[in-house]
Amino acid sequence: MEGFEKEQSVILSENPQRRWMEKQPCLLHKNPHHLNIRKDQELYNLRMQSYGEKMLREKMEDYNQFKRKLRVCVATCNRADYSKLAPIMFGIKTNPDEFELEVVVLGSHLIDDYGNTFRMIEQDNFDIGSKLHTIVRGEDEAAMVESVGLALVKLPDVLQRLRPDILVVHGDRFDALALATAAALMNIRILHVEGGEVSGTIDDSIRHAISKLAHYHACCTRRAEQHLIAMCEDHSRILLAGCPSYDKLLSNNHRDDYMDIIKSWLGDKVQECDYIVALQHPVTTDIQHSIKIYGLMLDALIAFDKKTLILFPNIDAGSKEMVRVMRKKGIEQHPNFRAVKHIPFDQFIQLVNHAGCMIGNSSCGVREAGAFGTPVINLGTRQTGRETGENVLHVRDDDTQNKIYHALELQYGKRYPCSKIYGDGNAVPRILKFLQTIDLDEPLQKTFCFPPVKDSISQDIDHILETQSALAIDLGGTNLRVAIVGMRGNIVKKYTQPNPKTYEARMQLILKMCADAMHDSVSLNCRILGVGVSTGGRVNPQEGVVLDSTNLIQEWSSVDLRTPISDSLHLPVWVDNDGNCASLAEKKFGHGKRVENFVTVITGTGIGGGIIHNNELVHGSTFCAAELGHIMVSLEGPECSCGSRGCIEAYASGMALQKEAKRLHDEDLLEVEGMNIKLAEPITAAHLISAARLGNNNADTVLNKASTALGVGIVNILHTVNPTLVILSGVLASYYQAPVQRIISERALPSAQNIKVVTSELEEPALLGAASMVLDYATRRLY
């Protein structure tokens, strides 16, 4: 529509003469010639407006012609649900431009014993698209189940032929459950009418099952709406419409011919409010008790001695026995009784409206009768939980005839205020408007609005990534650290203590910190899969033994770490060198993801690292394959901690830079303008870097030599293992990255000059590497 209006506006404003004249209004009042122009212009405008309106009408006709109608299939199973669905069907039928109606009839509509009530649908001038005989006779529990099965066998052909956009299903009958099941499995949208209500029998289970299958809901009361929301249905797909039968019921409340209707069913002598309407159905979860109550009700009605219109029970299990009780008591021949199988709904509501009392367990007693103020006696548990007006007297424990008789004495002939709990007479317009808002392009799969709950332990991949964890240990020269690490590399909790100097104290502290972490993991919802240990020195990862320690960790040679930790925690334990762990961390969480061959170089207190070749960590025959800090780059270089000379570590490690910084400081060659070194402040590599950045040539010379030594060493690595990537890690990585990249481009073979050097983004490579050993092996995943 918006497009059509815009087009019309364009048509009416296309005349350039009109636009010019509108900008010169003074000319229209001074020159007679201009007055003629004005008249001609007005005539032209009228013609153009008429032409534009004609074009708009034609386009609207085309729009209506090709607009997609909503194909609505209404399926009715029995006389009761037709009384609720018929108003909707009439509403759909009166809007042929919006809807296309298909009617499917099944269930007891097609059974002679129940009045062949499909005929009243035909009398209402509805074309029945399909009639499905789905009832297996027997009126017991097995027959109900077989009827559902038979309906499920027959419905697919009908639904496939009709191909409705939406199926309208009512209430809580077993036939309706078959309809909803078939439609849901065939990806047909379902509108459930009167869901969310509570009645206290198997009908509750069926009604709620249909609600879970349905995509949209038209409920009758505020409480029913809240029940649907509590059942996790999407609030935006719930319409509080009211009961559709109330639309017809309230509009036909006072018919002039109501006495003719009463007399046609009960005889000429009966008077208004001087008869009883009785309608009792079996409770399928307690059939024997239903039969007993039915007999007590009939005895009480016989004793009460008033004209009574009694309807046959529905087709649920137990109805056959109830009819047998009725016939045994001679109700069909009794002069006070008129027993019928079916009454048209518009006549039935007049009979209920003007009755002296209604008795039984039909939902009509607690719903429709309240709109008239008709007194009702509700027997048994079938309507337990239903919302009722003050007109309903419940006889829940109706174990004697006298109790029912006394209820008749209390209720008969009374009138109560009219109740509109179940509707205000405007349900159908609301439902039709609701149907028009359905977007057929939105996803068919319904979603549920579950309340927030604590995640359960499941095999969902997101849950696995969040809860399966590792215990990581980092044995450094200064500190001992333990952390709980998740699958994503998130450190859930970290514990830090000074590293003891002796073996016994160190092992005792490791076990205590691990025990504390295990205790905390329960409240943190972390399942510990194993323990990973990162330590300095040469390590045999196959045995979990530290072979040789670094000078920074005392009493740490030939130490079996795996056995005591595993025995204490009852978990598998992995142990490796800290440089190798850094490479594993990059492989799982850092720049090394999906890279088959790369080298990690740690530039910290010492120089270390690890080599990943063909996705595997290289250890070497004696577990010293990645001692990158001890690659010699000069025959006569400075002395290294390993006892040799000219190693990378002797030039470029933090200790080597600190040694040079102290030398310059002692010679008063370190400080430059802009630096302020306090007297008691320890001299570190950071002072050397600061001095170089402030223009200290001596500091710059030292750092250039260190960068060159590291770069040449890495070039040797490139020529040896030919990785795709070099990752610099540690506190000096950001400083060395650019010089090393430059030296590679200058000194490496042409085939290796383009290998990229990057700086690690991992804050805790040792801990993450230790954790990755556990997470990769324990979960049997390759990355």
List its salient traits.
783 residues, alpha/beta, Rossmann fold, Nucleotidyltransferase, domain 5, 4 domains, seven-stranded parallel β-sheet, 28 helices, 17% strand, elongated, kinase, hydrolase activity, hydrolyzing O-glycosyl compounds, nucleotide-binding, ATPase_NBD
Mean pLDDT: 86
Name the helicity range: 40-55%
The CATH superfamily of the largest domain turns out to be: Glycogen Phosphorylase B
Main β-sheet, spatial strand arrangement? 3-2-1-4-5-6-7
Counting structural domains, the number is 4
Low-confidence spans: pLDDT under 50, at least 5 residues?
A: 1-35
Tell me the major beta sheet. 7 strands, parallel
> Quaternary arrangement of the chains shown?
single chain
Shape: elongated
Quantity of strands, as a count: 26
Question: Strand-residue fraction?
Answer: 15-25%
The structural class is alpha/beta
CATH topology title of the largest domain = Rossmann fold
Radius of gyration: 44 Å
CATH architecture of the largest domain: 3-Layer(aba) Sandwich
Distance between the termini: 56 Å
The number of helical runs is 28
Q: Which CATH class of the largest domain applies here?
A: Alpha Beta
Would you give an account of this structure?
- The chain is an alpha/beta fold and 783 residues long.
- The chain has 4 domains: 70-243, Glycogen Phosphorylase B (Rossmann fold, 3-Layer(aba) Sandwich), CATH 3.40.50.2000; 256-410, Rossmann fold (3-Layer(aba) Sandwich), CATH 3.40.50; 460-590, 2-Layer Sandwich (Nucleotidyltransferase, domain 5), CATH 3.30.420; 592-761, 2-Layer Sandwich (Nucleotidyltransferase, domain 5), CATH 3.30.420.
- Helices cover 44% and strands 17% of the residues.
- The chain is elongated and about 130 Å long.
- The two termini are 56 Å apart.
